[in-house]
TrEMBL record:
Keyword flag Transmembrane: yes
Record's signal peptide: 1-21
Lineage: Eukaryota, Metazoa, Ecdysozoa, Arthropoda, Hexapoda
Transmembrane segments: 486-508
Entry keyword Glycosyltransferase: yes
Keywords: Glycosyltransferase, Membrane, Signal, Transferase, Transmembrane, Transmembrane helix
Stated name of the protein: UDP-glucosyltransferase 2
GO molecular function: UDP-glycosyltransferase activity
Family named by the database record: Belongs to the UDP-glycosyltransferase family.
Length: 599
């Protein structure tokens, strides 16, 4: 009976279990500045689950050789900083406006493809790579951080195979297009991933933001795709995705309205278990009771007064210990009693940040470093220098997770002043603690979420196809933004306004027309009576002048009789036409004007 009762449970569990290992193709072509090794924990977890992986990666992944793993390293030496942000003659950092960085962002796709496919390693391994990707796979995992992956061009046909995308960046219109999902990005509310505009945007911020978003498709379709089509198949390097694992989280990014095919896995690269630090680091940290500050700023040499400001900060804080990763630096700082320099990659960074003694973290504001700082509750000083770093640094500033510096306004005391701020426990500790709790409070860890969705795609390849909204992608700009519908009330409103203006105009002109009509009527009356009155008046004046000295009473009577025959004057006209005193005044004015004209 017990076995029968457990049968439904066993069947349910069996639906999520794979009877045999899946064949998975993993393609990572990201350049060095995009940290291509961030996907390593996912690959390790899939191998641990018993799946077989064929990995083509531009990162030297430290994957332990084992059964079920075929790994090929393809170098990508493209360096966006050297090509666009550092002066070729002086090596100094040169700031760049956001609109120009948008061009650089898309140029990274071309640069990465040329770097990988033009390398001697790629040409030498090409026959072997073609054979490797020509096998039958149950799932393709591709890194589309840059919006494309040129290694997808090696796959002969992947139409029936589900494709899972990995993105180390933020949600972009390009990712939504690859998912064939509805565009949930609002340029009026969502800052562009390359911009430094605040979350609460004013008019000019929104204008700048709209220009950035409208410029993306123009650059992509007019410049990038035509150039790529000469070397690769754009239909392959811009694959149609069933699902995207996105390296974002509302704690360190702005809140976004994500399409259903986008799953947030921020912190995917963070270790599950911390490794012990070397003895020399442990001994160094024990000397400083005020804590440790970790520094990882590969491009600090190119910033004006960058090294000098760093040395000044270390010198002014002798009670703090400073651990400085100087692997990327050409000129090393002088030895100081409270400074320990490291000459390795970032493999120790998480182990150092996990120490309770660490009180500050200086970095360039890349999303991985910011996530690690929040995960371990360490306040930051961020100095962004390129692309998405400016957006991430702005979020750090807005959320009060640290202090943001500007390379453009950098000076000798910049690091010293910023460090004093983050060492203020009352200002940052509470905010960071809350952010840390929100970042950790998830139903499943990022790696568990990623594994669940990857295996779900393998078990049911068509499970996520219903999330695509092809009809939304096919709509033109006017229909997608409801401009055709909004045109109807706009035209009605315009018609109403024009009619209202017409009515107002008529009301204003009516008194003027009435006054003009009245004046014309009076003028006609005056013109009708004025000639007779004027002639009689002239005769009387002439007669009076001739007989001025010889007037007699009889002649006066005769004159009076003659005047009785004169037609009615102005007073008579007033009685006959019912004219008011105001009308008589107007008549007098008109008569005066006519007199002047005749004179």
């Amino acid at each position: 009976m017990k076995t029968v009762a457990l049968l439904p449970v066993l069947l349910l569990l069996g639906s999520f279990c794979f009877l045999e290992a899946a064949q998975i193709l993993c393609l990572v072509s990201s350049a060095k500045h995009n940290n291509p090794s961030w996907s390593l924990p996912l690959f390790e977890a899939l191998l641990a689950k018993g799946h077989h992986l064929s990995v083509l990666s531009s990162s030297e992944l430290k994957l332990t050789p084992r059964e079920g793993l075929v790994y090929s390293h393809l170098p990508n030496d493209y360096d966006v900083m050297q090509k666009h942000f550092l002066d070729k003659e002086t090596g100094k950092y040169q700031p760049m406006m956001a609109l120009k960085q948008l061009l650089v962002w898309y140029e990274v796709i071309l640069g990465s493809c040329q770097s990988i496919m033009g390398s001697e390693t790629f040409k030498r391994l090409l026959p072997e790579l073609v054979t490797q990707v020509s096998q039958e796979f149950d799932l393709i995992i591709t890194d589309i951080t840059e919006g494309a992956n040129c290694l997808m061009d090696l796959v002969p046909s992947w139409d029936p195979i589900p494709v899972l995308g990995l993105s180390a960046g933020k949600l972009t219109p390009d990712l939504i297009s690859l998912l064939q999902a509805e565009d949930t990005i609002s340029a009026a509310r969502t800052p562009h991933h390359l911009s430094q505009v605040p979350k609460n945007m004013g008019f000019w911020n929104r204008l700048h933001n709209h220009i950035m978003y409208l410029g993306e498709p123009i650059i992509n379709w007019v410049i990038i795709r035509p150039v790529l089509s000469k070397t690769v198949s754009t239909g392959k390097v811009f694959p149609k995705l069933q699902l995207v694992l996105l390296n974002t989280h509302p704690v360190v990014d702005y809140v976004q309205n994500l399409p259903p095919g986008v799953i947030e896995v921020s912190g995917l690269h963070i270790k599950q278990e911390i490794s012990p630090l070397p003895d020399y680091i442990e001994k160094f940290t024990e000397k400083f009771i005020y804590g440790i500050v970790y520094i990882n700023l590969p491009y600090i040499e190119s910033i004006g007064q960058g090294i000098e400001s760093m040395v000044q900060m270390i010198h002014d804080n002798p009670n703090c210990g400073f651990i400085w990763n100087v692997k990327e630096m050409k000129v090393l700082p002088a030895e100081m009693p409270n400074l320990l320099t490291l000459h390795n990659d970032q493999s120790l960074q998480q182990d150092i940040l996990a120490m309770s003694a660490v009180k500050g973290f200086l970095n360039h504001g890349d999303s991985f470093s910011v996530q690690e700082a929040v995960f371990y509750g360490v306040p930051m000083v961020v100095l962004p220098v390129n692309l998405e770093q400016f957006n991430t640094a702005q979020r750090v500033k807005e959320r009060r997770l640290g202090v943001m510096l500007s390379a453009k306004d950098f000076h000798l005391q910049s690091f010293h002043d910023a460090l004093q701020l983050i060492l203020d426990v009352q200002q940052f500790t509470t905010v960071l603690y809350q952010a840390q709790q929100n970042f950790l409070a998830r139903q499943q860890s990022p790696i568990e979420i990623a594994i669940w969705h990857a295996e779900k795609l393998i078990a049911e390849p068509r499970f996520y196809r219903h999330l695509a909204q092809v009809e939304a992608i096919d709509q033109n700009f006017f229909v997608a933004h409801s401009l055709d519908v909004l045109a109807v009330p706009f035209l009605l409103f315009l018609f109403f306004v024009l009619n209202l203006l017409s009515v107002i105009s008529k009301l204003v002109e009516a008194p003027k027309k009435k006054e003009l009509k009245k004046r014309k009527k009076i003028k006609k009356v005056v013109e009708k009576t004025m000639p007779e009155n004027k002639t009689i008046l002239e005769q009387n004046v002439s007669l009076m002048e001739d007989l001025k000295e010889e007037l007699i009473e009889g002649e006066m009577e005769l004159l009076s009789e003659n005047q009785s025959d004169i037609p009615k004057g102005v007073d008579g006209l007033a009685e006959e036409n019912n004219l008011t005193d105001e009308d008589l005044l107007l008549i007098q004015e008109e008569k005066t004007l006519l007199d002047k004209k005749e004179d």
